[in-house]
Design goal:
0% strand, 440 residues, single chain, globular
């Protein structure tokens, strides 16, 4: 099935369609940058938040509590996915994208204004959990909406490249969060960072959110979705239709998303805590290392998208999982040499399978569902995978390090995920409903 448009097939209309597709892709992907900046800031200042909201004589206990709050955002992601997925499939992709970025920005701003434990006692960590869960609820709809929207605008042979801009700019959003955290930690003494410096990255969500809402107001809904509405083939009950007729693809999406999100949150968010609290780097050094690595990843991902245009998403994913299994342990061994230079090299090496996996995963997922349930299917499946892979893996890695004393625990988790991914993706092609050219 190929996207349906209402334009006549003429050179001028084709050119206009391509222009609109590029603009729609840019705006959707840029919104993901802002969304992931807002969502990721928490992870990059987790060590400081542990002191502000969970004071304890044992720093590891405070950190584990902070990471549990980080994970709480994932518990509500599937609920957010169902809400924003329904909105996207029932009302429109554009409406869903605007609602998700609005809620994310408000939740981040409220977090930045929240008093600490010293000011309001136990209410502080409780409210921190509430605001973090609002962020998780919002993030449940962003990826599903953005990749569905871009997939429905892009020409079939360009989809892997266009969709790869979503994780690429999402990584830049994380990089921006890491950069602001690095600047705050570098220029402020620890007392000032704990008193008010940690608030700066969160409060930047306000102008960023306003900018994104303005841009998303300026774009149209996708032609394929618009055509389904015009033909009266859109559904008013996407979740019921998804569970009744698309359970097998949904299960496959969840499994693929578990592997991807394990790599995302261990490889780009948890590592900031890993460097500072486990390996002994300063907070400023840790944030700088992560910043350099994620900027490299942001450049790698579109290259992976171009590769996906040539070999298809299935082969791209298979390659990524093999590389995960092969390079993760060596990359973590480099990180553990107590050298900033070697740590950067090690983490950049780890970004190669991450980039391949991100581009391949997000290209494959929207092809598993028809237009009527695409947003709900991708958002819900990816969010459940995020709960299992992203929400649990940072806590499990920290706990394993604490129990075993082995700093390579995150590497073992990532290597195991790569091996699991190989088994999963080999059967993914049988469940695809559209875009057969992607599964060579």
């Amino acid at each position: 099935m190929t996207p349906t448009t209402t334009d006549s097939v003429t050179p001028s209309s084709t050119s206009e369609q391509q222009r609109k597709a590029k603009r729609a892709t840019a705006v959707a992907a840029f919104g993901t940058l802002i969304e992931y900046y807002d969502f990721s800031v928490y992870g990059y200042v987790a060590a400081t938040l542990a002191v502000v909201f969970f004071p304890s004589d044992d720093p590891m206990i405070g950190l584990l509590n902070t990471l549990l709050v980080f994970g709480s955002a994932f518990a509500v992601r599937p609920l957010g996915a169902l809400c924003f997925g329904w909105l996207g499939d029932r009302v429109g992709r554009r409406a869903s994208l605007m609602a998700s970025i609005g809620l994310m920005s408000v939740a981040a701003a409220l977090t930045g204004m929240l008093p600490g434990y010293a000011q309001i006692g136990v209410a502080a960590p409780i409210l921190l959990v509430v605001f973090r869960m609002l962020q998780g609820f919002s993030s449940g709809g962003e990826i599903g909406g953005a990749v569905s929207y871009i997939r429905e605008w892009a020409e079939p042979h360009r989809r892997p490249l266009y969709i790869s801009l979503v994780p690429s700019l999402g990584v830049l959003g994380k990089g921006a969060a890491a950069g602001i955290a690095a600047l705050s930690a570098s220029f402020l003494p620890s007392e000032a960072m704990e008193a008010w410096g940690w608030r700066i990255p969160f409060l930047l969500a306000v102008p960023l959110g306003i900018l994104c809402l303005y841009l998303r107001l300026s774009i149209e809904d996708s032609p394929e979705y618009t055509a389904s509405k015009a033909d009266n083939t859109a559904t008013t009950r996407p979740l019921k239709l998804l569970l009744a007729h698309h359970r097998a693809p949904l299960a496959k999406v969840v499994a693929i998303a578990v592997v991807q999100n394990t790599g995302v949150y261990l490889g780009t968010v948890f590592v900031a805590v890993y460097f500072s609290n486990i390996l002994g780097f300063s907070k400023g050094q840790a944030a700088t290392i992560v910043l350099l690595a994620v900027v490299a990843a942001a450049m790698f991902i579109p290259v992976a998208g171009l590769l996906g245009c040539r070999v298809g998403a299935k082969k791209l994913l298979t390659i990524s999982y093999i590389v995960y299994a092969a390079v993760t342990i060596p990359s973590f061994l480099l990180m553990g040499q107590h050298s900033v230079t070697l740590a950067v090299i090690g983490l950049v090496i780890g970004m190669v399978p991450y980039a391949l996996c991100s581009a391949g995963t997000l290209t494959l997922l929207p092809e598993m569902f028809p237009v009527q349930v695409r947003h709900t299917g991708v958002a819900f499946g990816h969010s459940v995978g995020a709960v299992l892979g992203g929400g649990l893996s940072p806590f499990v890695a920290t706990w394993l390090i604490d129990v075993t004393g082995n700093n390579l625990a995150p590497a073992y988790i990532l290597t195991g995920s790569g091996i699991l991914g190989i088994a999963i993706v080999l059967g993914a092609v049988r469940n695809a409903t559209t875009g057969a050219h992607l599964y060579r």
